[in-house]
Amino acid sequence: MLRFLPFLLLILSACAPTTQTEIYRFDQIIVSRNPTSAPPAFPQSFFPEKPKFLQSSEFKTSHIHTKEAFLLMESEESIENIRKRIEARAAQGDWKLIDQTEKNGEVTYLLEGFIKKSLSIIISDNGSSTSYIRFYFKKHSSY
After folding, report:
1. Do 136 and 130 touch, CB atoms closer than 8 A?
2. How many Å apart are CA 102 and CA 114, to the nearest integer?
3. Any long-range contacts for 88-92 (C-beta under 8 Å, 24+ apart)?
């Protein structure tokens, strides 16, 4: 009976539900569900400690350069810590904080980067221990 125990444990561990990454490509548009990483256009230093990526999309002008991007993530980090991280990162100088609004339980940041880049961050509290964070990136120049 004990000789079947490792085999049984292997089968039971394989039956655990996992999220699978889905990637759809439409010419210059890439849409991902449950991505393993964020699109490279987003500065990683704005992200919380342990984010869970839910959705992302990118519009590329070529294979390398991203023109527009969107990212939805979930985090168990508190909203106060996320806000401190974003404000401290914006104070470093390469992203300038243009606007910050708080309305209906959502906090919105609008930042401007070098070479005509803009970044919007929206933090939503759903009343539980998790927060949803949406990132929007747009590059307004052609290079």
Report:
1. no
2. 25
3. 89/43, 89/45, 89/46
Is residue 85 within 8 A of residue 118, CB to CB? The reply is: no
**pTM summary value:** 0.81
Contact 134, 82 (CB under 8 A): no
Phi/psi for 11 (5° steps) reads: -65, -45
Can you give the pLDDT at residue 126? Answer: 74
Q: Bridge-partner residues for 25, per DSSP?
A: 30
| Dist CA 28 CA 50 (whole Å) | 29
By the 8 A CB rule, do 92 and 84 touch?
no
pLDDT in tens, 2-60: 566 566 555 655 555 667 889 999 888 899 999 998 988 888 889 988 899 999 999 98
Residues in the chain: 143
Nearest alpha-carbon partner for 69 in 92, 37, 114:
37
